[in-house]
Amino acid sequence: MLKQATNQPVRIGICEDDSTQLQCLRHEVLQYYDEKGISVNIELFQSAEELLFKYPEDLPFHCLLLDIGLHGMDGMKLARHIHQHDSHLVIIFITGYKEYVFEGYIAGAFRYLLKPYQKCDLWEALSSMGKEKLDCGNKTEDYIGFFYLGDYIKLKKSDIIYAEVKGHYIYIKTKKQEYSYKGSMKKLKEQWNDSCFCMVNRSVLANIQNIDKITKTECFFSCQTSCQVSRGCYKALNQAFVKYYF
C-alpha cells in the first residue's frame, strides 16, 4: 500500500477544458487517495493560460493531469513549457488524441491515457508515481560542480543544456546563463559520467533532459537553439534519447 512520504498533502493539478470531465477527474483522484488514506489537495484549471497566469514558472504540484486538446495553448505546448522549468514534474496526459503518444512522451509524459479511459488505469498511473515522486519535500537535486572565476560553484543538473569545447575552454550553457572555464572535453566526460549526458558531436556534450528533437543531422534543444549531429554520434545519441523518455 502506498503511504504518504511526508506530513504534507499530495498536490495534484488538473487542466481540462471540459467542465464535466474536469469534475469527474477530481472525483476519481479524491476517491483514489481517500482509499489510500492519503491527504490530497487538488487545483482545477480549464486552460493552459489560466494555469500559467497563476503559476508562470514553478508549479507546486507532485502531478499534473493534462488534456491535450485544450482551447488556446494546447496541452502539448504546455507540457513543453513546463518541462523547460521543471523536468521532474509528473505529467499524465488524458486525451482522445492517440496520434500524439510518442510526442507526448518526448514532452515529458509519465503516462498517456486515451479517452475513454478506465478508472483503474488512472489509479494505476497515480500509484506508479510511487514514494519517490511524492516525497517532494525531501527531494534532493543532482548538481554539477566546477571552478568558475576562482570560485567553486554548482549547477542543477536539470538546468544544464549542453557543454561545448572551443579551443582550450569549456562553455556550459544553462537555462539562465553561460559559463566558461579552461578545460578539456575528455576531462569533462569523465566528470559528467552520467546517462543524462551524451555526445552530439566531437565538441558538444548534451543533456538529454533538455533535448526536444533529434534528426540525423541536427539536435534541437529546449532553449530554442540547435547544433549539428555528427554521423558517428547519431546512433548513441538517439538511443540515449529514446531510453531516457521510455
Describe the overall structure.
The strands form 4 sheets. This protein has a 5-stranded parallel β-sheet. A 5-stranded antiparallel β-sheet has the order 10-9-8-12-11. A hairpin with a 3-residue loop joins strand 9 (169-174) and strand 10 (178-182). The chain is elongated, with a radius of gyration of 20 Å. It has helices at 19-36, 48-54, 75-85, 101-106, 119-128, 130-134, 185-191, 231-245; strands at residues 10-15, 40-45, 63-66, 90-95, 109-114, 143-148, 151-156, 160-166, 169-174, 178-182, 197-201, 204-207, 211-214, 218-221, 226-228. It has 246 residues and is α/β, with parallel strands linked by helices. Helices cover 32% and strands 32% of the residues.
Summarize the structure.
The chain has about 250 residues and is of the alpha/beta class. About 30% of the residues lie in helices and about 30% in strands. Mean pLDDT is about 80; it is low at about 1-5 and about 130-140.
From N to C, what is the helix and strand string?
EHEHEHEHEHHEEEEEHEEEEEH
Mean pLDDT: 82
- The coarse overall form would be elongated
Q: Give the N-to-C terminal Cα separation.
A: 25 Å
Unreliable runs, pLDDT <50, ≥5 residues?
A: 1-6, 131-140
**Care to count the β-strands?**
15
Q: Structural class, from helix and strand content?
A: alpha/beta
Radius of gyration: 20 Å
Helix tally? 8
Strand fraction equals 25-35%
Query: Largest sheet, order of strands side by side?
Result: 2-1-3-4-5
Largest sheet: 5 strands, parallel
Q: Considering DSSP H and I runs of 4 or more, what fraction of the residues is helical? A: 25-40%
